[in-house]
Design a protein that fits this description.
By secondary structure, the protein is of the alpha/beta class. The chain has three domains: 88 residues, Rossmann fold (3-Layer(aba) Sandwich), CATH 3.40.50; 35 residues; 59 residues, HUPs (Rossmann fold), CATH 3.40.50.620. The protein is built from seven helices and five strands, in the order βαβαβαααβααβ. It has a three-stranded parallel β-sheet, sandwiched between helices. Helix 5 runs parallel beside helix 7. The two termini are 39 Å apart.
C-alpha cells in the first residue's frame, strides 16, 4: 500500500521522530491543548506566543528534514482538543482514509457479531443487554447514547494506565469521565 499524503501529528517525542523518518508528502501538525497554555501571570518566556514560536521552529526543522529527502512538507499548529483537531485537519488536508462501503459493511458485520456474542454471555448471567453499533468519535458517541437511553450509570474499562497517563493520552475513558452527566464506573484490569 502506498500513501501519497500523510498527516503526522507530533509531540516531538522519540517515538514520533522514529516514525517521521519513514514518510512521503507530509502535513506536520502540532496541537496546543488549552491545558498546555500557561496562565497569563507566568513569566514571559512561557507566553502562548513563545509556545507557538517554539513549535513553529520545531515543525520547520522537521519540514526541512523532509525536503532534504526530496519530500514535500506542510506545517500547521492548531489549538484545542488533540483528537478533534487531528480529525479536522485530516479532513481539511484531504488525508483521511476513505473506506469502501463494502469494506465498512464487512467491519460492521464482524463488530455486530461480537456485540451479539457479548450480549448472549451477559444474558447467561441474568443481565439484560442489547447490541448498539455506532460510527464516530468513541467518547462522543458514548455520551450521546447515554443521553438518548437516559442511563444513570456508564460502565467502562480502563487500559490499566494511571489516571495521569489516561488524562495525558486523552483517552475515551478520560473524556467520558470528564464530560458525562451520568455517573461513570471504571473497571480496571486485574493485575497478575
Amino acid at each position: 500500500m502506498t500513501f501519497s499524503r500523510v498527516l503526522f501529528p507530533t509531540d516531538f517525542s522519540a517515538y514520533a521522530n522514529a516514525v517521521f523518518a519513514c514518510l512521503p508528502e507530509v502535513v506536520l501538525l502540532s496541537v496546543i491543548r488549552s491545558s498546555d497554555v500557561p496562565m497569563p501571570e507566568t513569566v514571559n518566556r512561557e507566553s502562548p506566543e513563545y509556545w507557538r514560536w517554539s513549535l513553529e521552529e520545531k515543525l520547520n526543522i522537521s519540514k526541512m528534514a523532509l525536503e532534504g529527502k526530496g519530500l514535500r512538507g506542510l506545517t500547521r499548529i492548531e489549538y484545542g482538543n488533540p483528537a478533534e483537531q487531528i480529525v479536522s485537519v485530516a479532513e481539511d488536508e484531504r488525508v483521511m482514509k476513505q473506506r469502501l462501503p463494502k469494506q465498512l459493511a464487512e467491519f460492521d458485520q464482524i463488530d455486530a457479531e461480537r456485540l451479539e456474542k457479548l450480549c448472549q454471555n451477559l444474558k447467561m448471567f441474568g443481565l439484560q443487554a442489547r447490541p448498539m453499533l455506532r460510527h464516530g468519535i468513541p467518547f462522543k458517541e458514548t455520551l450521546v447514547l447515554a443521553d438518548e437511553m437516559d442511563v444513570s450509570l456508564i460502565v467502562m474499562g480502563s487500559q490499566g494506565r494511571s489516571a495521569v497517563q489516561e488524562m495525558l493520552a486523552g483517552s475515551t475513558f478520560e473524556n467520558v469521565a470528564r464530560l458525562s452527566r451520568q455517573a461513570v464506573l471504571v473497571v480496571h484490569p486485574q493485575r497478575s
